[in-house]
Every structure is written in structure tokens, then in C-alpha cells.
Amino acid sequence: MENLIRLNKFIASNGVSSRRKIDELILQGRVTVNGNTIVELGCRIEPDKDKVKVDGELIKSKTKKIYIVMNKPVGIIASVSDEKKRTTVIDLIKINQKIFPVGRLDYNTSGLLLLTNDGELANKLMSPKSKIYKTYYVELSKPLEEKHRIKLTEGIKIEGQLTAPSKIKFPKANDYLRLYISICEGRNKQIHKMFESYGYFVRVLQRFEYAGVKLGGLKEGEWRKLTAAEVTKLKKL
């Protein structure tokens, strides 16, 4: 049948989460099709006929796509919910439509976070194959030596795994305490671990650019919808 599509793609395109996260939900037995629990990946459905539910909630087609950028404060969870009942970014945005963060931003890191209900776009932005760069402002505990800058940009081993090449720039001449670093990965506390490998402590970490979208004048806790031009640019990446 020509109108059959993959189950994870259908759910992702209708605002639940990224395709990768949906695969986890399927394997956990939290997805049903016409009342039958699906636990195998690769299932295909007919969107116009089959009733798909996630955790018992019906997934409706043709969800209006929403694209948001926010300045996440330190101490806010970049997630839809939190087991410890801590404040999440969803609590700050307070809109009726379901959205979710694109990727992670650590609890103690502030700055730019994208949120959407477009699972397909989120999946592409988070995929390691896409090599999408994220740029952070960093303040270190001591000036960064040139030999360490070179090694960090070339890639170093963290917990036995080599990091991808990064980009480091200094915003002010002769000031090596403050810098911008761009990476195309998203490992847990990666930037902290990169600098700690050479004895530097990260005092301030703020993400201000992701896939070409910039933080601009957003204050901590503030958010806005992406412009049509920004969305088009993201989809072309």
C-alpha cells in the first residue's frame, strides 16, 4: 500500500518527540496501534485508518508545527517532565500545544534551547551525521594555553572516546580566560570534561547559537517563536 508509513515517523511528525526517543517508547511497550501493543521497530501503519496511541493518548494527524527558541536559566531542566518534580522548560513556556526540547542542555548550563513538536526536524538536528554546530560562551578558571587550544580543536579522548574537531575563538585580544567554543556533538557535560582534561575549570557556560539560530536579546527565562526564515534555514541544513 502506497500510504503506509513507519510508525515512528508518524508519531514524530505529530508532535510527540524525536524519532529516536519514540523508538525507545515503542521498545518499552508504550505505543499501541488499534489497541495492540507494538514492541518491534519498523512497524508501518495507515495514518488515515489506524489509531495510534502513546501512553494511552491518541495521536492526531496534522498537528500545527511550532518552533521556539528560549534562553534557559541555570537550574531549569531541559525536559518535558522531571521525576524529582523540578521546574522544566515546559513549565516556563506554558502553551497549550505539546512541545519538547531539541537535544539536551545541562541543568547548570544556561542559554539557547530549541523546542518544537516537529519530530522529523528535531531528529535531523540531533543526528550526529548532520554535524550541526552549537556555540557556547565559556569563562575558564585560568587562561587557555595555545598548546591546549590546538589539542582541543583537533579532538581529544574523553572516557575512551575521541571528540570530533571543535572550533575555539577568543572575543577579546590577549584575553584567554573567555572564549567561544563550537562543537557538533552533545555528550553529557562534554565541554566541562574537555577543559578539565587539561586542568581548567569552567566557571561560566552559556550556549548562544545552535544551527545558525542565535540567542539575540532574549533574557534568561524568555522565549520567542522562530521566524519563517529561521525555520526555512533549519530545514535546509
Task: Describe the protein in words.
Strands 7, 8, 9, 10, 13, 14, 15, 16 and 17 form a 9-stranded mixed β-sheet that branches. This protein has a 4-stranded antiparallel β-sheet with strand order 3-2-5-6, with no helix packed on it. It is an alpha+beta fold and 237 residues long. The chain is elongated. 30% of the residues are buried. 22% of the residues lie in helices and 27% in strands. The longest helix has 9 residues, at 19-27. It is built from 7 helices and 17 strands. The protein has helices at residues 7-12, 19-27, 89-93, 119-126, 146-154, 190-196, 228-236; strands at residues 5-6, 31-33, 36-37, 44-45, 52-54, 57-58, 67-72, 100-101, 110-116, 134-140, 157-158, 161-162, 167-169, 178-183, 202-210, 213-214, 223-225.
Determine the strand fraction and express it as a percent band. Answer: 25-35%
Number of helices: 7
What about the largest sheet? 9 strands, mixed
What oligomeric arrangement do these chains adopt?
single chain
- Kindly report how far apart the N and C termini lie: 31 Å
- Helical fraction equals 10-25%
Low-pLDDT regions: none
Shape: elongated
Q: Strand-and-helix sequence, N→C?
A: EHHEEEEEEHEEHEHEEEEHEEEH
Instruction: Evaluate the radius of gyration.
Output: 20 Å
What's the total count of β strands?
17
Q: What is the structural class?
A: alpha+beta
Notable features of this structure?
single chain, 237 residues, alpha+beta, 4-stranded antiparallel sheet, 27% strand, elongated
Secondary-structure blueprint:
Elements: E1 5-6, H1 7-12, H2 19-27, E2 31-33, E3 36-37, E4 44-45, E5 52-54, E6 57-58, E7 67-72, H3 89-93, E8 100-101, E9 110-116, H4 119-126, E10 134-140, H5 146-154, E11 157-158, E12 161-162, E13 167-169, E14 178-183, H6 190-196, E15 202-210, E16 213-214, E17 223-225, H7 228-236
Parallel strand pairs: 9-15
Antiparallel strand pairs: 1-4, 2-3, 2-5, 5-6, 7-9, 7-17, 8-9, 10-14, 10-15, 11-12, 13-14, 15-16
